[in-house]
Design brief:
With 187 residues, the protein is of the alpha/beta class. It is built from six helices and six strands; from the N terminus they run H-E-H-E-H-E-H-E-H-E-E-H.
């Protein structure tokens, strides 16, 4: 009887459920003015995810009017500007949070270069944008066309949003968020 009970206990210990593997998250973002970068860095602090900046090999003009013309031409031609670097181990990520500014109701063409130059099959893509007026809906439709073998979720227009709203969006999309502890000292 003692041997039988010992086997039963050993079997229970070895067949105990394993902890679910924590999803590995990448935050890839394109930012020209720094606005999208600020949001990406806030998300990184909330999640502990890896941060990757999407950068083109050729710099865009610093003059706003010239930048507008350049971006508009790229979009008309559906150009794919060359990028400085790729993510080295994209296969190790389960979720890609993708940030960008809205240019003419869409993501900048460099974002599509990024998407097309990485295998995102089976991954969850969570788009977020910053914008002077447009929302993210048109971009999400275009991203879904490019990422046919990925699950592209509803995007977040992240203009002036609180960490609470960002956390809520991340949690809704099953991204782990570090608990933020607020401490108030009284002297």
């Amino acid at each position: 009887m003692l041997v039988h009970n010992a086997r039963k206990v050993l079997k229970e210990k070895t067949s105990a459920p394993k902890k679910a593997k924590k999803k590995k998250v990448l935050i890839a973002y394109y930012s020209r003015s720094g606005t999208t970068e600020k949001v990406a860095k806030r998300m990184q602090k909330l999640t502990g995810a890896t941060l990757f900046r999407i950068q083109t090999k050729k710099k865009y003009p610093s003059n706003y009017d010239k930048l507008v013309k350049t971006g508009e031409k790229e979009q008309e031609r559906q150009a794919r500007p060359a990028l400085k670097k790729k993510v080295k181990s994209m296969s190790s990520y389960d979720t890609v949070i993708l940030g960008f500014p809205i240019w003419w109701d869409d993501a900048p063409m460099a974002v599509y270069t990024f998407l097309e130059s990485h295998n995102l099959s089976g991954k969850t893509v969570l788009p977020f944008c910053t914008s002077g007026g447009s929302d993210i809906s048109a971009s999400v439709k275009h991203i879904r066309r490019v990422c046919k073998k990925s699950t592209v979720k509803k995007g977040l227009t992240a203009n002036d949003v609180s960490n609470k709203k960002i956390s809520s969006w991340l949690k809704k999309n099953r991204v782990s968020v570090k608990e933020q502890i607020s401490v108030q000292l009284q002297i």
